[in-house]
């Protein structure tokens, strides 16, 4: 967990970064609760970026402009002006259900609904399947995602504000049922409204209570900045190999410094 909705996904020698944002102060309406676990320059040695939408807390122009032009930035189809403003030199627009390969990962864009042009992603990597929701609301298309893929881990918002910017804890519980995911890693937790009038009592804890009340067996892994989680051994899934999808406390943890070192080693190998 780098922070907020920025997560480093690793497996089979491939590194993907979701919704990069390395700002530390927020804006006039929202404050950032904790700094990101990495600096921009520590995560430039990646294979691809999953870019759900262009809001300020999901797109870091300085980071995108500094990426090697060979690194693809996958995102929603949109206007050339938006892509230019965000600074990505190798932007690849994707429509829902389009597929592509980045390194060892098979990536499918999936439907999403937000206050901006947006897309979600399903990443099949090293024998496991991860769903990155971005800031979507819960909608019926999640049931279709669950039918098409066997989701092992879902990175998704589980709490929201007034006015609702993402799905809240009720919607997140319904999304888990639709997706059929085994594990949920909550995202979009790194900012809070400066005005108490925009805050709610929703949290990871309230989401988990609702999840248990609904009888869901899904595990909830709450990662703070710099914490990591490795997918457990897939002994019950003989057609799949062991993997690390996102990096957390339920299995052997990997620190932010360890991940940074692995990036430097790959950089030296490329050189």
Structure, described:
The protein contains 6 helices and 14 strands. It is α/β, with parallel strands linked by helices and 271 residues long. The strands form 3 sheets. A 7-stranded mixed sheet has the order 7-8-9-10-11-12-14, covered by helices on one side. A 5-stranded mixed sheet has the order 1-2-4-5-6, with no helix packed on it. The chain has helices at 61-66, 80-86, 141-148, 169-179, 204-213, 256-270; strands at 8-11, 14-18, 30-32, 48-50, 73-76, 91-94, 99-102, 105-110, 120-125, 128-132, 153-157, 183-187, 191-193, 219-220. Residues 234-257 and 259-271 have low confidence and may be disordered. Helix content is 21%, strand content 22%. Helix 3 (141-148) packs parallel to helix 4 and helix 4 (169-179) packs across helix 5. It has a single domain (8-270), classed as Metallo-beta-lactamase, Chain A (4-Layer Sandwich).
Please tag this protein with its features.
alpha/beta; 7-stranded mixed β-sheet
SSE arrangement:
Blueprint: E1 8-11, E2 14-18, E3 30-32, E4 48-50, H1 61-66, E5 73-76, H2 80-86, E6 91-94, E7 99-102, E8 105-110, E9 120-125, E10 128-132, H3 141-148, E11 153-157, H4 169-179, E12 183-187, E13 191-193, H5 204-213, E14 219-220, H6 256-270
Parallel strand pairs: 2-4, 4-5, 5-6, 10-11, 11-12, 12-14
Antiparallel strand pairs: 1-2, 3-13, 7-8, 8-9, 9-10
């Amino acid at each position: 967990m780098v922070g907020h909705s920025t997560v480093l996904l690793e497996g089979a020698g491939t590194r993907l970064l979701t919704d990069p944002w390395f700002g530390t102060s927020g804006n006039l309406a929202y404050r950032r609760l904790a700094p990101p676990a990495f600096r921009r320059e520590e995560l430039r040695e990646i294979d691809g970026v999953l870019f759900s939408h262009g809001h300020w807390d999901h797109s870091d122009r300085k980071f995108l402009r500094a990426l090697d032009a060979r690194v693809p930035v996958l995102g929603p189809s949109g206007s050339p002006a938006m892509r230019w403003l965000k600074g990505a030199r190798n932007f690849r627009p994707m429509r829902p259900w389009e597929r592509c390969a980045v390194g060892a990962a098979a990536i499918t864009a999936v439907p999403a609904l937000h206050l901006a042009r947006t897309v979600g992603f399903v990443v099949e990597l090293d024998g496991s399947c991860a769903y990155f929701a971005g800031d979507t609301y819960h909608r019926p298309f999640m049931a279709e995602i669950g039918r098409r893929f066997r989701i092992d881990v879902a990175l998704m918002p589980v709490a929201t504000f007034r006015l609702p910017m993402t799905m809240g804890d009720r919607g997140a519980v319904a999304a888990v049922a639709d997706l059929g995911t085994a594990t949920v890693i909550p995202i979009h937790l790194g900012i809070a409204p400066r005005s108490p009038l925009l805050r709610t009592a929703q949290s990871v804890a309230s989401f988990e209570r609702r999840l248990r009340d609904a009888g869901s067996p899904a595990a909830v892994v709450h990662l703070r900045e710099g914490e990591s989680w490795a997918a457990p051994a897939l002994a019950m899934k003989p057609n799949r190999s062991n993997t690390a999808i996102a990096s957390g406390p339920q299995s052997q943890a990997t620190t932010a410094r360890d991940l940074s070192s692995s990036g430097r080693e790959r950089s030296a190998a490329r050189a």
